[in-house]
Structures are given as structure tokens and as C-alpha cells.
Amino acid sequence: MGESESRRAPEEIPLEKVNDYAWRIPKYKSGMRVPGMVFANEALLEKMKTDRTLWQCTNVTWLPGIYKHAITLPDGHEGYGFPIGGVAATDYDEGVISPGGVGYDINCGVRLLATTLTEKEIRPKLAPLADTIFRNVPSGLGSRRKDLTISSADLDRLAVEGVPWLIKRGFGWPEDAEHCEERGCMADADPDKVSSTAKRRGLTQIGTLGSGNHFLEIQKVDKIYNPKTAKAFGITQEGQVTVMIHCGSRGFGHQVCSDYLRVMEHAVQKYKITLPDRELACAPGSSNEARDYFQAMACAVNYAFSNRHAIMHWVRQSFQQVFHEPPEKFGLKLVYDVAHNIAKVETHKIDGGEKKVWVHRKGATRAFPAGHPDIPADYRSEGQPVLIPGSMGTSSWVLVGSEKAMDLTFGSTAHGAGRMMSRSAAKRQYWGGDVKAALEKRGIVVRAASASVLAEEADLAYKNVDVVVDVSDKIGIATKVARLVPLAVVKG
């Protein structure tokens, strides 16, 4: 989130109100191939008007081969190229792939575990558990776990095989992969398309939380809105303890993005693509440049799935070390793992027929409906779990995908709260010690690598996630299942 400092848009963007939660940006410029569509209430829309969010949404409509509309979701805010909270689908044969539609933190995403414990049962051990997790899961910039070393050949295998590679080596449980998007392994990954610099950065960072908005939380179920679906997902009662892990592909994915942005800038000239913003650098999906990027991106996707998987393994170990019982005794089952920054080949109904497309989700969660074959078999009657983390100290959410999302947003919804202010602005306004004290006063245990990251991630630096989720629910692009609130927070 918040990939760049906010700047004012160079022009006022015209908007047509569709309803209380949808706004159309008409094709008011000759370069626009489709309209823009913004899903937000009036308050969220007003915030989008203060930076370049709507301008970036408009720019996305210029992409060759784009279908229907460029989308900005309720958590939308300024990013690199696409707004964060942006979705676009381009034709598989005639369209383009743009790294700016995926982002720097490729497959930044969220993983949720459900336990059999209640808040009452975990509260006496909460501080020691947070301490143990903080020791076991490396957090902060440049962090690494010294007892996990992988060779260059191992890294290549992990980049191709993803979560199943770790499971075969004793990390996690065999059934875990079934509850990951893409089953924890995106196809078409080719480590030969990843630079040596990216690989060098990735060698030491598997199983690390990183810094910024990434976090690990011990939570409790605050309220269940859809008991039937919640039960299918393993969420059985209010007060139940869950664990949420939010992180991505670390320096490996960041370098892949940086490397291919340079490639794409040359491709724009080579293929004579006209764009209103150089940050949207792209290449035809059928080109070597786009295919190379997609195969490198898939490696970073698999790296991120594996990163969250290793962290989950150490969370389970932490429960065992604190409670002196095997982790299976406490459930600790993986509910689901979702990707937020990704491009995929999907088939969607467009103009009365089915079209194969490149779907870009930048700060957006896939939200497929009941019956979709890409959903785990045990969830298929309900729909895909959608995980939306909140800002530090606030609620996070479990929702479920819907058929309406397929019609409106290419099967996508919001991914989080969305920033209200830049990290530097938050550090000027808040002091980390005060943030920590306020959280602890509310009974939330806090462990962080630095005070500055607590200031950057202060709650008021973000939009209200409950409002973002409410808009998603009212539009129907993902509907409420359960609200989670933090008991302990581990920050990088």
C-alpha cells in the first residue's frame, strides 16, 4: 500500500453517478478505450479526489485490448501506474500485460488460520506467545532466519513448485496446499527469466515478515454474519482465536518488478504503444517481453505463497513451544491464502460470450462465486473465502465471493483499508511509542521491530476498513462472513 507519495491529479476527472456506490468515468478523452468505474461511497470517493487515484484509473482505460472498464475498488488510492485497488482485464490475444497493474510487492497477500481456542483460553499465554512468534518469525527490513538456508538450486525449485516444495520438506501439512489460491503454485514459472539480483535478494528472505504494512496478528472472531458459510470455513463461534499473516514476495518480487519495468519501457517504444503515463509501461501479451515478465512474476507469486507458508509453519511451532502440546491439538488449520497483487489468465463472460483475458489485480482480492472450479472442493458450495486485513489495531474481515463480482469486477473485490496518508506524513504526525501505548491500553499485545513502523502504520493513517467492507458487501462483490479483531500484533 502507498507505493508513492500523494500528488494532485493534473486535471479534474469527470464522474457520473450510477448509484450510491458506483461512479462512471466517461470516455472524455480520445485515447480512452473504455470508461472507468469506481466503486465507493461518497466519503471514500472524496478521499480519492485528493490524489491521483481517479486520474490513474482513467489512464488504465488507454491500455490496448482492455475490456468493459478500468475498475477502482472501495480501498482505492494512488499507486504506481494503476491505482492500488485497481483491476483491469485485457484480451489474451490482442491485449497487453502491465507490471504497474501488479505492483512491486508481487503476491502481497493474506493467510488465515483458525484455531480451536477461545480468547479466554489464550489470554493467559498471549504475551509469551507473541514473544515466541516474534523470535521465530524474522520481522523488519533485512530480517532473516539464520537456521533456514536454501541453495540457488533450491530457490529455483521453490519458485517453480511453490508451497508443495516446502510441504515435501516437512514445512506444514499435506492438506495446506488445497486451501491456497492456485493451490500455492502458479503455473508457467520460469526461474531463468528472473535476474541474478532478484535471486540473490530472495535467498535469505523466505519465511520473513518484512516491514511496512505487513503484519502477523493473533485475533478473535468478533462477530459472525453468515453462520453457514463461516462454519464451512472453520469459523464456528464468536470469541474463537484466529491467526492472520499478511506479507508478500519481499526483495525477490520487488526486484522482478523493477527489472521488467525497464524492459517494458523499451517495449512501449518498440510496439508503438501510446500511453498517458510512463508508469503504465506494458507489452502485448503475445510478445516475448510480456511472456518473460509473466513467467518471472509467477516465480515471485510462488515465492510469496512459500514465504507465508514458512511463517505459518513457525507460528504452529510457536503454539507448540508455548502450550507444550502438538499444534494439531489447537486446530491451526489453514482457512485460505489469497493473493492481492497478481496478473492471471482467466475466462470471463464479456459482451455475451466467454473471453480469455489477462486479469490484473493490483491491491485487489479474487472473489469467485460458489460453484467455481478454482475454489477448494470443501468450500465450493459456499464460494471463495475473501480475506481483507484492516489497519493495525482495527478489525479484519472474512467475506465470500459472489456471482455479482464476476459481472462487475472480473471476480474481484477490495484488499484492505487503503492508506489515507503517506508513511512519511504518518511519521510526522504520530509517535510509535504513543501508538503502542494506546494499543496496549486496549489489551492488544504489540511486538514490533521498530517504533517508526508503528508510527507509519497508525490506524488513522488508513481508511476505515469496516466502511470499505460495507461498500463491498452492499455492492455485492463480496459479502460479509465474519469480523475479526486483534489480540496481539507482530510488526516488522
Brief digest:
32% of the residues lie in helices and 24% in strands. It is built from 15 helices and 19 strands. By secondary structure, it is an alpha+beta fold.
Describe the structure.
This protein is an alpha+beta fold and 492 residues long. It has helices at 42-48, 53-60, 119-122, 126-136, 152-161, 163-168, 196-203, 227-232, 250-270, 288-323, 403-408, 423-429, 432-441, 451-456, 465-475; strands at residues 16-19, 22-25, 36-39, 70-77, 84-91, 96-97, 109-118, 215-224, 240-247, 283-284, 333-339, 341-350, 353-362, 364-366, 385-388, 396-400, 412-414, 445-448, 479-491. Strands 7, 8, 9, 11, 15, 16, 18 and 19 form an eight-stranded mixed beta sheet that branches. α4 packs across α10 (288-323), α5 (152-161) crosses α10 and α9 runs antiparallel to α10.
Provide keyphrases for this structure.
492 residues, alpha+beta, eight-stranded mixed sheet, seven-stranded mixed sheet, 15 helices, 19 strands, 24% strand, disordered N terminus
Tally of contiguous helical segments: 15
Largest sheet: 8 strands, mixed
Q: What share of residues is helical?
A: 25-40%
User: What percentage of amino acids are in beta strands?
Assistant: 15-25%
Structural class of the helices, strands and pairings?
Answer: alpha+beta
Radius of gyration: 21 Å
Q: In terms of quaternary structure, what is this?
A: single chain
Distance between the termini: 15 Å
Low-confidence stretches: 1-5
Question: What is the overall pLDDT average?
Answer: 94
Number of strands: 19
Principal-axis shape:
globular
